[in-house]
Design goal:
The complex is a heterodimer. By secondary structure, chain A is mainly alpha-helical. In chain A, 72% of the residues lie in helices and 4% in strands. Chain A has a domain of 212 residues. Chain A is built from 20 helices and four strands. In chain A, the strands form two sheets. Chain A has a two-stranded antiparallel sheet. A two-stranded antiparallel ribbon of chain A has the order 3-4. In chain A, helix 2 packs antiparallel against helix 3 and helix 10 packs antiparallel against helix 14. The N and C termini of chain A lie far apart (47 Å). The relative contact order of chain A is 0.10. Chain B has one domain. In chain B, helix 13 packs antiparallel against helix 16 and helix 16 runs antiparallel to helix 17. Chain B is globular, with a radius of gyration of 21 Å.
Chain lengths: 506, 479
């Protein structure tokens, strides 16, 4: 069992999909419970993984490797290390909770849960795959169920949102595929094995550009490949100016899918850059990510926060706050300091839990009021005290209040970035103020003030909804007080990753 | 002199089956015609078994004008499979449209015989004979639904343009004969080696005409304008047969003649072929976007796919040949599937071929909806389906041969194609109020054909290794 733990975690949901498809159409509850049953083992295995992961070892752990298409040296190769372990844990947790957040779906229940389970397999696969071909397959497999989940079960403008999401991501995938082929053919012997591609990273030469004002820059094969991969990942993050799909997709998607989208899919972009761009193309990373990625991250922080402030739709506000928070991830990644980079990965995890909570909370009132207009509520604290308590916890965590997890990761990012880019960090830190601004203003409008007459009798948050929120809240508090619970796992691998790039920084 | 007849076994079996179907058709009552389906299928299965039995042999007959190598056998199996699927998916169609069953199946079998001949021909005359046998069969099949005026128009159009293309082909063969002194491919190849200077313009002109003739048959742009009308007018199973088998046969000829025997002239035709490939995929995809009928969309998509396949011919070599054969397999599975679902939508006189007819199909007929989604995604090139794996190896072969630009244009084109393939899925799952679709009980054979296509599409995508090996071995056997 323990030899194939990652395979089980990845393919359990797929087995679940088959089972769900075989169940009778009318038995909605049976379908829901079966889905929950098949996402539980990955969560339990994730706990096991967490306890057995060796934090001192910077290399790959729980490695599984088998030939798949031997003629082209394509392998089934999965493993975890410090870069991916937190994402694997997050995926296992959020998918299990989102099954319960999807309980209220009553149209095409069977199809919804089958696609959801397929999505789960795709996401888990992306984070554990270490063969580039396998990685690409999982990347695409995940795209399709997402498209259907938004397009069939989404809100009024679902078709537009789904196709926009799809075309943006697909454009990135095509660039990624070309980059994969380019890397494959420049390796000797040709391989898709990420570890071998990393070992061969010194093969790609660079030539200096010889025309003013770029004569101090280097440009070559690996820069082109880097940009192709970067655009593919930047669309997923989403980095400005590729972010426009996100508000649409988030607003139209059903609650649980918004959670998955913000909690896991956005992380794939940042994860891809760390897993692929950094170690495989370190020279180009040093040339291109230095400053550029940091500046892009800072712009994301401020731009996202300003957009969030202007929103009237609750869900759109949370969506733009994601754009802002993912900016910290980019800023931290670009710092190439131990604090910055581990802060970035911690921020990825924290954003997954905190924004997951925010979307679930929006879902709770949307299910009751059937609208998400921020100004349409008011004084909910008096009607729904428990709900308001959980909401305030999530809002404060998102704001970066000390003692909650968001604070730790943002401080780490800013600490790391300060050493390289004082100006950018100062600007990034001002984003915290903007964040506090729009979040407090939202709390004021939705929860405080005079109670809206229409919602005097709004029922309090129920047990099932609380069940999806409480685990995330507990994690937010634990990581706010004792961040080493997760940081220890990341440190060794991330330091090693940093060392690959630092020698190339000029 | 003793003639080795072994290489003819599979094709002879197909002809025999066709003749028995024709004869039996005269003597059985109308309600017993289902027997003909079984006879055809058993005949095809027997021929397939023979081809399997002969696998690995390398024999020639009639002074080596017919060659039985793995390449020929690979295509023989492909054509037999295509014929079987065509027959399976037309059982209900021909009954609904009053097409004469006996003639229909016999003509499918006879065209299949022509195709087998084309793949095995090592002599231009014999190749031409195979091509005509196939074409005439398909001309008639196109017009067999006589009550429908578009069908007759399509048949006429197809016949005229086909005859025109044949003219190019024949003239090319004549010029090559003039330059090389033989129509036998082996002797042409050796003549190429000796008489480099002598008659090279005549030879080039001949090769060019041959090139144009084949471009007509694979429907490459700018020789494609007959395709939409013909595919649209023909009975749907015949459209599928044309899109898959006729195209594959032309590509088989192209591979044997150009990639192998005429490969010394490669530098001369690489550039025009490259232009043809780029033009074919781009025009095919662009025109497919603006269609309102799914059948016409599939016709344009088959043009685009001919463009992708041409990439493999430009790339050439072992990797190109392997990619070509593998993509033909994948393409066969997904195209038959897509046309199969289209057939399932037909209700009596009403074809239900528009996009709007697919509205809500995903919920009314979950199996058809799921299958069609798979085929559309596979055609668009999504992993882990056959279309993705096939395209991956196509683009890979282009990169290996140094045509990175082709790979990039191909990848961008497949991005473009997503727009129209996805529209079908959007219709099926996000709209309501289209056609009903045949339930399983009314068309079990059709469902069987679709299920086979689903299995093929998934299998070739997830576990491509065996089929890739097979493609490589088959292509190498040319040399």
């Amino acid at each position: 069992m323990t030899d194939h733990v990652l395979t089980y975690m990845t393919f359990f949901p797929l087995a679940g999909m088959v089972v769900v498809l075989l169940l009778p159409r009318e038995r909605h509850d049976l379908v829901r419970w079966a889905s929950a049953l098949f996402t539980l083992p990955p969560l339990l295995l994730a706990v096991w993984l967490y306890r057995n992961f060796d934090p001192v070892n910077p290399g790959l752990q729980f490695v599984e490797k088998a030939a798949w298409i031997p003629a082209y040296n394509i392998n089934y190769f999965v493993a975890v290390d410090g870069i991916s372990i937190s994402m694997v844990l997050l995926t296992a947790l959020l998918t299990f909770l989102c099954i319960f957040a999807s309980w209220g779906i009553d149209k095409g229940v069977k199809g919804y849960f089958a696609l959801f389970l397929l999505l789960d397999t795709g996401m888990m696969g992306v984070f554990v795959a270490l063969d580039f071909f396998l990685f690409y397959i999982f990347w695409e497999v995940m795209l399709l169920p997402m498209y259907f989940l938004i397009g069939i079960w989404g809100g009024p403008r679902r078709e537009y949102a789904a196709i926009k999401f799809f075309l943006y991501t697909l454009f990135g995938s095509v660039l990624m595929l070309l980059a994969i082929l380019a890397l494959y053919f420049s390796s000797e012997p040709h391989t898709f094995d990420m570890t071998q591609l990393i070992a061969q990273s010194s093969r790609y030469g660079t030539t200096p550009l010889h025309f003013w004002p770029f004569d101090h820059l280097r440009w070559g094969f690996q820069h082109v490949v880097w940009m192709a991969l970067f655009i593919g990942f930047a669309i997923k993050i989403p980095a400005f100016p590729f972010h426009t799909w996100l508000p649409d997709a988030h607003v139209e998607a059903p609650t649980a899918i918004s959670v998955i989208l913000a909690g896991i899919l956005l992380k794939m972009g940042a994860y891809g850059i760390l897993r692929i761009n950094y170690p495989m193309l370190p020279e180009a990373t040093a040339d291109l990510a230095y400053y550029f990625l940091g500046a892009l991250g800072t712009w994301n922080i401020i731009y996202g926060a300003l957009c969030a402030m202007a929103q009237k739709d609750f869900k759109k506000l949370v969506a733009y706050s994601s754009v802002s928070h993912m900016g910290y991830v980019m800023l931290g990644m670009a710092s190439f300091t131990p604090q910055g980079i581990s802060g970035a990965v911690l921020q990825m995890f924290n954003h997954g839990t905190i924004t997951g909570m925010l979307f679930l909370l929006v879902g709770v009132i949307y299910d009751r009021a059937h609208h998400r207009d921020i100004d349409g509520f008011g004084g909910l604290a008096a009607v729904m005290p428990v709900y308001t308590g959980v909401s305030v916890l999530a809002f404060f965590a998102s704001m970066g209040l000390p003692g909650l997890s968001g604070f730790i990761s943002e401080v780490l990012v800013l600490l790391g970035a300060w050493q390289k880019y004082p100006l950018l960090s100062a600007l990034g830190a001002s984003g915290v103020i903007l964040t506090a601004g729009y979040l407090l203003w939202t709390i004021q409008r939705v929860y405080l003030g005079a109670t809206n007459e229409k919602y005097k009798a709004m029922p309090e948050i129920n047990g099932r909804e609380l069940f999806t929120l409480v685990p995330l809240g507990i994690i937010v508090i634990i990581l706010g007080v004792y961040p080493n619970a997760l940081l220890d796992l990341l440190r060794a691998s991330l330091d090693q990753l940093n060392q690959l790039v630092i020698p190339h920084l000029s | 002199m003793e003639t080795n007849l072994a290489p003819l076994l599979p094709s002879a079996e197909v002809v025999l089956t066709a003749l028995s179907v024709l004869l039996l058709d005269l003597f059985i009552r109308k309600d017993e015609k289902g027997l003909l389906v079984w006879i055809s299928l058993i005949g095809l299965a027997l021929a397939g078994g023979m081809a399997l039995f002969l696998w690995g042999s390398h024999e020639g007959a009639f002074q080596d004008s017919i060659l039985l190598d793995d390449f020929a056998l690979f295509f023989t199996e492909l054509f037999l499979g295509a014929a079987a699927i065509t027959i399976l998916s037309s059982v209900h169609y021909v009954r609904e449209t009053n097409i004469h069953e006996g003639e229909f199946y016999a003509l499918v079998l006879l065209s299949t015989f022509g195709m087998i001949l084309m793949a095995a021909a090592n002599d231009l005359i014999l190749f031409f004979l195979g091509l005509e046998t196939m074409s005439i069969g398909v001309y008639i099949l196109t017009g067999m639904w006589r009550e429908r005026s578009q069908a007759s128009e399509a048949a006429m159009k197809y016949f005229l343009i086909g005859a025109f293309a044949t003219g190019f082909l024949l003239y090319g063969i004549a010029l090559i004969y003039g330059a090389a002194g033989s129509t036998h491919l082996g002797r042409i190849a050796s003549a190429l080696g000796q008489t480099k200077s002598h008659g090279s313009i005549i030879l080039s002109a001949g090769v060019f005409l041959l090139f144009v003739g084949l471009a007509f048959k694979v429907a490459a742009v700018p020789f494609h304008f007959w395709v939409p009308d013909v595919y649209d007018g023909a009975p749907t199973p015949v459209s599928a047969f044309m899109a898959v088998a006729v195209k594959a046969a032309a590509f088989a000829g192209w591979a044997r003649i150009f990639l192998y025997q005429l490969s010394p002239l490669q530098s001369e035709w690489t550039l025009p072929l490259k232009a043809l490939a780029i033009l074919t995929m781009t025009v095919g995809n662009l025109l497919a976007i603006s269609q309102s009928s799914v059948k016409r969309m599939l016709a344009y998509s088959s043009i685009a796919h001919a463009g992708y396949l041409l990439i493999a011919l430009v790339a050439g070599g072992e990797s190109g040949g392997q990619a070509l054969l593998f993509y033909l397999l994948s393409y066969a599975a997904m195209t038959f599937g897509a046309f199969g679902v289209l057939i399932a939508l037909k209700e009596g006189e009403n074809d239900h071929e528009a996009y709007s007819d697919f509205a809500g199909l995903g919920f009314k007929r979950p199996f058809l909806g799921m299958a069609m989604s798979l085929f559309m995604l596979s055609l668009a090139g999504f992993p882990p389906l056959a279309g993705f794996t096939g395209k991956f190896y196509l683009f890979r072969s282009a990169v290996v041969a140094g045509h990175i630009d082709l790979a990039i244009i191909g990848a961008l084109n497949s991005l473009l194609s997503v727009v129209y393939y996805l529209r079908v899925i959007v219709m099926m799952y996000m709209e309501e109020g289209g056609a009903e679709g045949k339930p399983f009980a009314r068309a079990p054979y059709l469902y069987l054909a679709i299920a086979i296509a689903v299995l093929g599409t998934v299998y070739l995508g997830v576990l491509p290794a065996p089929a890739l090996d097979l493609s490589r071995i088959s292509f190498i056997s040319l040399h």
